[in-house]
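Hello Y.,

Per our agreement to keep a running log of every chain we model this quarter, I'm adding this entry. I've kept the format consistent with earlier entries: sequence first, then predicted structure.
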Amino acid sequence: MFWIIALIVLGLFLLVVEFFMIPGVTVAGIGGFLIIIYAVYSAYADHGTTAGHLTLLFTAIASIATLVFSLRARTWKRVSLETSISSKAVDDLENEIQVGDEGVTISRLAPMGKASIKGKTVEASTIGELINPNTPIVVVHVETNKIIVKPK
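Predicted structure for the entry above:
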């Protein structure tokens, strides 16, 4: 009976490793599940129906207790990331670049590319026509993260 309990404990440990440390379905989770099934089967086969039922009941209670204890433990707070990202991926261009500002293209705008407006390199787009590099441009429209230009 000691080996059956040891197999159940090993299976529960592998399942905890699977749930909290290794993402996805891996050998640890499948192995842990199969080890628990084999331990319960061995209890039924080797020690009879009563011992099998008790082993199954013990395994279910131990599984629930392990899951609850693992989720409530402060250990996971120590290894989890708790920082937040407060930066923006896009600058607020509406405050810096206005309609009518002038600049020059850095790359070809076909229909999007890089342009230098007020000394700042930005992503700009045209209204359908292609604009070659080093061409003077004028800002036609500014959205939160999109600048539309036309040749000067």
